[in-house]
Design goal:
Family: Belongs to the prokaryotic Ku family.
Number of strands: 10
Pfam families: Ku
Number of helices: 6
Subunit structure: Homodimer. Interacts with LigD.
Protein name: Non-homologous end joining protein Ku
Function: With LigD forms a non-homologous end joining (NHEJ) DNA repair enzyme, which repairs dsDNA breaks with reduced fidelity. Binds linear dsDNA with 5'- and 3'- overhangs but not closed circular dsDNA nor ssDNA. Recruits and stimulates the ligase activity of LigD.
Distance between the termini: 44 Å
CATH architecture of the domain at 7-29 and 85-172: Beta Barrel
Shape: extended
CATH topology of the domain at 7-29 and 85-172: Ku70, Chain: A, Domain 2
Strand content: 25-35%
Structural class: alpha+beta
Radius of gyration: 27 Å
Largest sheet: 8 strands, mixed
Helix content: 25-40%
Length: about 270
């Protein structure tokens, strides 16, 4: 069964408007999830907010957002006040600027979504905006209310559709210069580079989604399946972690690595 549409609205560029639909490009629906139970009764455990001082339960209608300005000193904001500062339109992706593709560093990318035409009538307008970005090597920038917050979003053409990425906020991204500027700029020896490139070539292959399978999830499913059948799956022993030697002859290590790769390829 096809998933329900996550978002419906409009994409707009100046006077060109078309209806669009959007779906998250990733899902956690297949993840193994657990509930917290009372081991004695087998009943689910529920959580409640309590007052940190009186330790009495707090009614939902008494809950309010608070901004801490000092120790035990808060400015209270009602939900209506928070919602009032959001965008007036939560259903229109108004593209107000374009930037060169690849000019936005990957660290700004947050969540990807698939953007598609909402109906047959809007396909032509959708296609012309998509293809114009493709032809000019640009991506569109807009703002949209998503996940209960106003977010900057990037529209990137991909195949027949558009991928809409929510972008991280400016105060969420650290300046890489604070970390990378401390590193030395020395170039490695040419002989070392030659050996490492050979090792990279030996291990280069085509991307496959199987490369990022979750082995822990697979083992958990095995345990759950065994318990369904009334069996107790034996616990796996944690693999012994070998501590690497801090003193390394890089040239010797690379030569051994390349030799091992050759033996693996012949196996």
């Amino acid at each position: 069964m096809a998933p329900r549409t996550f978002w419906k609205g409009y994409m707009k560029l100046s006077l060109v408007t078309c209806p669009v639909t959007m779906m998250p490009a990733t899902t956690e629906g297949e993840k193994v999830r657990f509930h917290t139970l009372n081991a004695r009764t087998g009943h689910r455990v529920t959580s409640h907010y309590v007052d940190s001082v009186t330790e009495r339960p707090v009614r939902e209608e008494d809950e309010v957002k608070g901004y801490e300005r000092g120790e035990d000193d808060y400015i209270m904001l009602e939900d209506e006040e928070i919602e009032a500062v959001a965008l007036e339109s939560t259903r229109t992706i108004d593209i107000d600027m374009f930037v060169p593709d690849h000019s936005i560093g990957w660290v700004w990318y947050d969540r990807p979504h698939f953007l598609m035409p909402g109906d047959e009538v809007g396909q032509e307008a959708f296609a012309v905006i998509r293809d114009a970005m493709e032809a000019t090597g640009t991506v569109g920038i807009s703002r949209l209310v998503m996940y209960r917050r106003e977010r900057a979003v990037m529209l990137k053409p991909r195949d027949k559709g558009i991928v809409l990425w929510t972008l991280r906020y400016g105060d969420e991204v650290r300046d890489e210069d604070d970390y990378f500027d401390k590193l030395t700029a020395e170039k490695p020896e040419a002989k070392l580079m030659t050996l490492v490139r050979k090792l990279v070539d030996e291990r280069t292959t085509h991307w496959d989604a199987g490369m990022v399978n979750d082995p822990v999830q697979a083992r958990l499913l095995d345990i759950i399946a065994a318990k369904k059948k009334g069996k107790k799956k034996p616990a796996r022993r944690a693999p012994k972690v070998e501590t690497p030697d801090n003193v390394i002859d890089i040239m010797t290590a690379l030569k051994k690595s390349i030799q091992a790769e050759g033996q693996r390829g012949r196996a």
